[in-house]
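2024-03-11 09:14:02 INFO receiving multi-entity request
2024-03-11 09:14:02 INFO entity count = four
2024-03-11 09:14:03 INFO echoing inputs for audit
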Amino acid sequence: MENIKEDRRIRRTKKLLKQALAQLMDEKDFKDITVKDITDRADLNRGTFYLHYTDTYDILNKIENEILENIQSMINQDMEKTDTTNNTSVPALKPIAEYIVENADICRCLINNKASVDFLDKLQSLIYDNCSDIIKRRHNVKDSRRNEYYFSFITFGIIGMMKKWLEFKPMASAEEMVILADQVMKYSASALK
Amino acid sequence: MENIKEDRRIRRTKKLLKQALAQLMDEKDFKDITVKDITDRADLNRGTFYLHYTDTYDILNKIENEILENIQSMINQDMEKTDTTNNTSVPALKPIAEYIVENADICRCLINNKASVDFLDKLQSLIYDNCSDIIKRRHNVKDSRRNEYYFSFITFGIIGMMKKWLEFKPMASAEEMVILADQVMKYSASALK
DNA sequence: CAGTTATTAAACTATATGTTGATTATAATG
DNA sequence: CATTATAATCAACATATAGTTTAATAACTG
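2024-03-11 09:21:47 INFO inference complete, emitting structure
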């Protein structure tokens, strides 16, 4: 991903800029956040921003991608050590839910962010990529146009559920959400016949 | 809604500005569209834009709201003439699907618009407002935290399904989507017990 | 330590924003 | 049709942000 190891100053700068943006997104709409806002908050020169990012959408995009990469690598780690054959649930849901509950603030911020549906789309792809195969196998589903509608329904549905999950404080546990998601997925899969 | 009847010039101007924005959104990201872009395309003076809207997000917001008002009034009309008691489906789905298929271009544009999740959220609220009561009654569901997750799942799921629906050309018929949506809703409602 | 490289500060151009005041064009009304 | 009201235009202006560039300084790497 990153070319081995970046200069410590670069790591520091990028971290400060990302923290500053996350802070600002809690305070106002992303669309109203300027490069100057970010560098002021990070206490860095404005020019420094342009050494690493092209504009505010670029840094947002990179934050989103990192989150998704983190989730994906958690899924991969979990898959290695877990036996999926006799499992009744969809295995990827657990690491996803655990990541979200551990990083609730930033996930809530990105999911509800009015500036961009990118994160929702990316998250949906991640869920699809990691869940569709196993559902297809369990329910003996073959590829069809109709089933594409179904998978779009279910992957978006999971996102909607997580969105609601993030609204309540204190949040329900990851285990609870995994069980509920599994259940809803299983039942709605009956519609496939 | 609007104070009786606007000046014909105002109606014309607003229409031109909205058409121009819709065109531009097909061509590039909303975030890259400026007021000047819109007025150039509409062949109007830039100052004229500010007589009606505060900025590009304002006009987008108003376009979104009009679409949703149109859908809502279609639902209301349909509800009046349809007997809902012995109906097995969720009645609001039909007018929603019919509106979307009739206005596929603008709906696709707004649903996929990377600039704002507002439309998705508003559409979700509309679906929730018009569908949740009847589902609750049919399945004898009482209000609970758990069921809020479920309703968030199902309303987002429907949006995901419609999103997929809008991707294929030629689009499936409204009837087909209503039947599928109804079915998936019904089966996933079993998870409520 | 020596060489490399990131950050800074300042300046600069270009462009978008939002507003204002005077003028012209168009619509509503009796 | 003539009058009145008001919308749209045009030009100009102040402000803000976006990007880029330069030389000087600071910090890191090996």
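2024-03-11 09:21:48 INFO post-check: Residues 7, 9-10, 13, 44-45, 47-48, 51 of chain B lie near DNA strand D (CB under 10 Å from a C1').
2024-03-11 09:21:48 INFO post-check: DSSP finds nine helices and no strands in chain B.
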